[in-house]
């Protein structure tokens, strides 16, 4: 039977997985590169786009990454169920996750002004997992002739945040000194027990 201890245990695991190092992206110090990893949690993308809208100098580069993977269908569903974005469904269905998020960025935020202010926006649409996010991000930055960033902020689904951070550290382990990586899951999930289960 679930108890209040069960909820506390779940929240402890959620906190560990999220590995929140930056709580509010809009209050973060400037960084060389923000990496937005595709997921069905649109709050992550919205936090990045809003923060850059308020301060385009927050990052020299933004990499939006994510191809078509096992959970991409959930992103399409989330778009369809979000009134603000639902009209995009026919257009984004079948696209890689990064392209879906970039479409939202372009249509609902001032992407062009952010780019004009000097933030280089790159779309990585091949990766299908956390390790791939890291490897393909490095590839696209190098292909564009961008020097190895000294600092990264990684924005990822909080249930995969710590593993993605580890993947980036592994991918750049040959660099000395290594870049500084900070995780910003944008929120940490929390559950609580309902006293009256009849409410479920």
UniProtKB/TrEMBL annotation:
InterPro entries: Cell_Envelope_Assoc, DUF218, Rossmann-like_a/b/a_fold
Top-rank lineage group of the source organism: Eukaryota
GO CC terms of this entry: plasma membrane
Protein name per UniProt: DUF218 domain-containing protein
Annotated organism of origin: Endocarpon pusillum
């Amino acid at each position: 039977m679930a108890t209040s201890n069960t909820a506390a245990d779940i929240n402890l695991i959620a906190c560990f997985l999220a590995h929140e190092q930056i709580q509010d992206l809009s209050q973060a110090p400037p960084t060389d590169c923000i990496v937005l990893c595709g997921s069905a949690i649109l709050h992550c993308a919205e936090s990045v786009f809003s923060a850059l809208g308020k301060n385009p100098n927050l990052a020299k580069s933004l990499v939006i990454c994510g191809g078509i993977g096992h959970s991409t269908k959930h992103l399409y569903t989330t778009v369809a169920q979000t009134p603000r974005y639902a009209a995009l469904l026919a257009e984004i269905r079948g696209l890689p996750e990064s392209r879906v998020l970039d479409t939202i960025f372009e249509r609902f935020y001032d992407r062009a002004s952010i780019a004009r202010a000097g933030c280089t926006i790159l779309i990585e649409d091949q990766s299908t997992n956390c390790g791939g996010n890291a490897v393909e991000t490095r590839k696209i930055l190098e292909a564009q002739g961008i020097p190895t960033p000294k600092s990264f902020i990684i924005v990822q689904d909080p249930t995969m945040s710590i593993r993605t951070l580890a993947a980036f550290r592994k991918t750049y382990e040959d660099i000395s000194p290594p870049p500084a990586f900070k995780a910003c899951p944008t929120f940490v999930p929390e559950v609580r027990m309902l006293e009256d289960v009849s409410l479920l």
